[in-house]
Fold:
Amino acid sequence: MIMPEGNPQKIQEKVICFCNTTKVWGGGEKWHYDMAVLLRQQGYRILTITRKGSALQKKFLQAGLDNVALNISNFSLLNPLMKQKLVKLFLKHKVTTLFMNLPSDLKTAGPAAKRASVKQIIYRRGSAIPVKNTPLNKHLYRNVVDLVLVNSEATKRTILENNPSLVEPDKIKVVYNGIDLEAFDKQQVQPEGYPAKAGLVIGNIGRLVHQKGQKQLVEVARILRDKGVDFHLMIGGEGTEKADLEKLISKNELEEKVTLTGFVDDAKSFLKAVDVFALSSHWEGFGYVLAEAMSCSKPVVAFDVSSNPELVSDGETGFLIPYGDVAAFAEKLAELARDPQLAKEMGAKGREKVEKQFRLKHTLQEVVALLK
Structure:
């Protein structure tokens, strides 16, 4: 439990709205959920706007937070009725701060909040993908948004990649995602769900989509098998590339070496069951799962892309591999298989780094400071 800070009367005067109408669950949705729950504990009044039936809506409702279901899309900015509905909603609830997480929400809810005179309009961008240099984006970033909140220096760089003057740099603030270590450490582990099957158990958790690059991990597994390394690779998640991955595993005759576990709803038990975490993503805004793996004292092997160097200290908490070099990726995993003591030392240093830099209470403190 993170203790409340600040003047209770001033806090009660503020109404914080979290607008996130995505269908899926990911790092951005976890951030919205954590901040909404923690800010309510601090005494702030909270309103949430989500897509009906989404995972985020279900969690908000389970937490007892006020929720309004709206299905906002990329075309909603052309719908005057949707904009008017949002304006009335912001006025009715006397919203003082709006947090958004999706481009579609920014395009529709952002201008509506401006019309409703919401004092603080914050767009949180968690994806390290360049922003398109369009007239609409220029207007939104310069005239609608008061602050752009990003989860890494890498994400900050990509915002300005296509247009260095898209938004003033002092309107972009880096606030890292955080792990609630106290709660995380108290979670019970169910190791029987993931029995050890080899000398080195390698884990990966993520949506089975192109961004996460799990096809490269299958190639890494083939190299390790051919090297004679005693290993087993577990890939946790669901997604559109599942069938392709199954075919690739079968084609390379890796059924005994690679397991697709399906959706992982207990990340800690999964991570505790592995010896090393492998992140094959093409890009990451902030590799939240890296912080979780490091919290479990696991060494990390990842490509040297986007925000990964901000989490992984190469040669200390794990290894950073030149992008796309699957042979080098496999060799570093083989090195950890040969040297369990090195893996243990790297895992311990990873845990120390999370304790110092990526605690949820630090994230909350920075967000509260913005609200003040």
Summary: The first strand starts at residue 15 and ends at 20.
